[in-house]
Every structure is written in C-alpha cells, then in structure tokens.
Structures
1.
Amino acid sequence: MKKHGSFLAIVLVFLFPAFLVTSCKEKDSDIQASVQSALKDNPDMAGLSASVQDGVATLTGECKDESIKSSVETIVGKIKGVKQVVNNCTIAAPPPAPAPVVISADDALTKAVADATKDYPGVKTAVKDGVITLTGDIKKADLKKLMMTLNSLKPKKIDNQLVIK
Amino acid sequence: MSLQDKYKELLDAAKSLGVGNLQAREQNNVLYVDGEAPSGAVKDQLWDIYNKLDPDFRSADLVMNINVSTMVAGSKAVVTTQTSNLNIRKGPGTDQPIVGKAAHQETVTLVSKTNDQWWLIRTNAGAEGYASAQYLSPQN
C-alpha cells in the first residue's frame, strides 16, 4: 500500500508539473492565435504581429498612427487570457510631402523659349514670372510639337493665345 | 471640378501605358504632370489625350513634361528638324559656334544629357557636339 502511495506521489510530483507546463504552453499559443486573428480582422492592424508568453502579449509592427496603436492595445487587452499587453508597435513615418514644382527663372526661360520658337516665325512670345504667353499664329500641325517643347522648359504655365491657321 | 478630375483620363492613360516616375502635382490652379514614357508613341498618345480634353491647349492649367525613357546616354536618336540640317555646336546654347551638322532624319548617338534642352551627340561621321533636344526624337 505504502509502495503504491509513493508511486502515486512520484507520478504526481513528476507528471503534474509537466501537465501544468504543457497546459500553460498550450494556453499561450491559444491566446496568441486569438490575438492574431483579432489583429487580422482589423485592416488597420493586419500588419502587426503578436507573441504571447505567460499571458503577456507583446505586439510588434508598424501602426499608421498613435490612435491605432492605442486602440490595438485596448482590443488585445480585452482578449480572454491576456494578462498584460506590451505594446512595442512603432508609428509609421508620415508619407513625404511631394516636392514643390520647380519653375524656371525668367532669364533662362526666355532664352529657352526663344530657341524653341525660332522655327515658327508667326509665333510671338513673352515670358513673365514663369508664365509663357504665346501670340501670333501657327499651323495646326505644328502646335503639338511646339507645346511639347515648351512644356518641357518648366514654365509656371503657358497661356496659348495663338491663332491656329 | 479639380484639375485631377478634368485630366483623369490622361492620368489614367499614363498609368496604364507604363509611364514611370509619374507625378501629378497641383499648385496655384495648374496641374503639373511629370513622368517618363516608355516610348515616343506613348508620349504622342498622351499628348493627343491632352489635346482632346483641352482643345488646342487653351486653358493654361496643365504643364505636362513627359520624357521618353529610351532617350538616354548611349542610345540612338533621330534628327527631327522640320527640313533643314541640325546644327551641332561647341557648347550648349544657340550663341555657341557651330562645329558640325547632322542631316534631317539622320540617326545620331546620344552621348550625354546636359539639361532638358541640350544633348551632347555624336554623328556616324564622328562629329561631336551639342544639339538642341527639341530636334532629337526617340527611334521608333
């Protein structure tokens, strides 16, 4: 009887903690799975990843902004089994603003416009504050080619008052 | 109606025709469209759409600067003067002395790009100098 009892004790001493450990591990992975599926369900959080250890969920990845970062923490904190949330999410840098449009200086533009229009004797030009003004006349067939060249000179705009023949 | 809407067909076409580095920026009621077309034909097509949306380019609300990506140093280009020969000059500028000529429709080699207006070119006969970019077109 006594032998039996000590055997049981050995079983309990050795197997029970093992059972505890495995059950705990399983639980973490279950929690991790539910955290991940919660993240996946929200398009703002789909890019984040989570790992869970001993009930502590660690979040990593890039959030679009601060409000998403705090709401993901709230959502994950409410998931069953999560004891604590370590929020290591970073905030994405805002997209760079487009560079301002570069407009040619009048001197360079005047010279380039003169070169561009020298084959079209009917075309008169004026350049002021980056605006090219076209007066006079041009053949319809030449208009597109001239405009292509003038558009590449980085003007502010082109005021086309040409009479088309 | 915003300019991006007015020229939506143009911008959509630029995207679908594979224009690289496409940028559309609106500033002081002018839309600036920049990009690199994969061929001269695509550039032409975009200009035809521009002409359709804004007949004869009258509205002064779009500046479209589309380069052709095959126009790079080392490649060939065709001399597209109206009829005359193309002047090859010592430096980039019409005030520079003429050092050679390239014939109308002749194929030349682009050596290097000085700026949007001038290319250093070489003819098959070996003449080298600067030519105005407006008379150099991509080979089809």
Note: Chain A has a mean pLDDT of 87.
2.
Amino acid sequence: MNDSDADFGEQVGTLLPRLRRFARALTRHPQDADDPVQLAVERALTRSKQWRPDSSLANWMLAIVRNAWIDETRSRRRRDAVLVPENEAAEVGDTGTDRDIEWWSIQSALDGLPEEQRLAVALVLIEGLSYREAAQVMEVPIGTLTSRLARGRMALQSMLADQVTTRVVREDER
Amino acid sequence: MTVTDEELMAYVDGELDAARCESLRQAIAASADLSRRVAEQQALRDRLSRAFDPALDEPVPFRLTRLVSRARVVDFASAARPRPSRNVWLSGLALAAGIVLGIALGPALLQLSGERPDIVASGADVAAGGALADALSRQLASEQSASDPIRLGVSFRATSGAYCRTFISRRGDGALAGMACRQGAAWRIEALQFVSIVSGDANRYRQAATSLPPLILRAAEESMAGDALDAVGEAEARDQNWKTPAGTR
C-alpha cells in the first residue's frame, strides 16, 4: 500500500463531479457521459507519475477526459456507421418540461458544433478555464483557442436563437 | 469606438488587462448597442451554467467512485510501474538539456539505430524520415487514436506559405515532440524537443510525453499564418499532398 498513490486517487475522486460536468457538455447523450470519464480515470491512475505536482491536477484530468472522449467518438462513429441508423426524432418528446426542453435545446446546439469548437466552449464557458489554460488542455496555441471559441459562440447564439423562433411558431399554430 | 466581437467576449470572460477592461466598461456604459452585445454574451454563459452546473450536485455513480477507492488505486499503481528503459536512442540529446530548436542539431547526435530513422540529416537541414515522415504525410489528427505511436497535433500554414504540423512520437519511456514544415517532398524539422519520462531529473517533463511541450507550441504559434486547419482543411491539404496552393505564397 503506497500512501501517495492512495492520495492521488483521492484527489482524482474529488474532481469526479467536475469531470462529469465537462463530459456531459461534450457527449450528445447524458447516459454516455460517464464513459469517457471512466476511461480517463483509469488512464490517469496508470499514469499518475506523469502528473507534475506543481501543475493543476484538474486541468491535467480535463485533458485526459478530452482525449478519452475523442478516442471514444472515433470508435463510436466507426461502429455506428456499420450498425445503427440514427433516429434523432425519437429523442424529442412532446411532453417535456421546460427544463427538459431547455436542456435538449442546448445539448443539440452544442452537438451541432465541430468538435474543436465544442471543446473550446466547454472548457471556457462551462468549466471556467482561462484562455491560456484551455489552450494547454487542447494542446493548441492561444490564438487558435480564441478563434475556435469565438466561432463556437457565434454558432451557438444563432442556433439557440433559431430554436426559440421555431418553438414560438409551433405554439402559435396550436 | 469600434469593439470587435472577440474583444467583447474576452471582456465577458475576464481576459482583458485592467486598463483595457476599464476603457471598455466606459464604452459599454455609453453605448446601447455595446451593452446589448455584452448582455447577449453574458446570457449565453449563464444559460450554459444553468444547464450543466446541476451535474456537480448529482451523486457520482459507483462505477466511477470504485476506481479511486484505496484498494483499487494500488492495483493500478503496481500495474503501472515504470519499466527500465532499454531504448536509449537519442539519449545524448536528452542529456543535452532535452531541448533543441531549429537545426542546431549536430549530425553526431543523429546517429540513430534502425533501418529507417525518424530524423535524418539531409545536407544542412534536418528532415523527418521513416515512420515519422509517413505519419506527417498521411495521418490525420482527426482520425488518430491515443494508442498510435505517433500523434499529430495542429496543422497550419506558416507565414512562408508552407504547411507545417506538430507531432509527438513516443519511444519507449520517452517521446520526441516537434514541428515539421513541408519543403518539396520532404518534411523539414523546424523545432524538436526530446522528452524523457524515466530519468530522475526529467520529472518536470514527464507530462509532455502525452501532451505537446510549451516550447513546440510557441514555435508553432510564432510561425503560424492565420488559423490552424480544422479537420476538413487538414484532410484537403493531405489529399493535395501538402503542396502550397498556387498563388497564395
């Protein structure tokens, strides 16, 4: 039994709620969000020696979740292309509460963003990282991060605005 | 006063320095248009927080908590004991502080074993060879997985017009991180950093074995013209064999 390993595990444990929030912003279905988190925690524990104690463990973990999510998305895409025709319409129920509808609006707007923009939005706007930290997690220069963030934001604004319009129109038709 | 969207976003994100922040605050107070745009940005932030913050208060499922319980950690840790490094290629480079920029590499440091070395001296230049050259020419960052021995990072057009790409090539317990730019049919190495993750003193570079070191990022940032390529741009450049598009130099 090694105390420093146990301490490391404990520290990772306290980050789990944050890592789950981050993964939820990335994955389309909330029930899939824990998969990249689980993969990331497993990887982090086997690579705990790679973490520099003078750096942020949270940001290190976010980077590992990001990589796990990217890996998962790729293999899922390959699987889905062969096996499952997507049926998106089934997701949108007529009986959703306002909160469900809001959640669905945001989730599908995020899902409409290219991967890099979704990551930038999730890290800065949801996780509250600084531009520099987010650029490090994404392994890109800071200028690349800010331009992805700006494009992601503008796309989100316009998608969310469109959704509001659509909903209003539907209510008028009733 | 003209304020770009990017600047307003940086304001909302708290990324402006104090002086710029103050002058923007005054401008916003004086302009209905600016305050509307700031409010829109703030509203988006708030809306995202409202949607995702409840995840923080949910109980964490057992499948995750069990991973970090004490007993489990020991299992993982013993499985992850670092293996002694037998692969000592480039160890001279690693000893030389681990950092080499540009073509300051002497050919003597590049006596590499193997039939197709990853780094080759060609005339006055240092170029990618072997599996590294293949990966630079063919591999897409958008299609690789964490287990690939060579991983590509950002791809972009340099101010010279040439395509450049950052990479990490894992070697035993170390990694070679760098930036290469297309020159004719070759990939010229513009920046290179060897990252050891075994020797005691290299502790501070450990993390870099899986992420791009700041030095390489800075080299990329300094030579970049415009934005990094997205997945589509990367695939297009690859399909054009990384030739600089005519008339854009």
Note: Helices of chain A lie at 3-26, 34-46, 57-82, 98-111, 115-126, 131-138, 142-173.
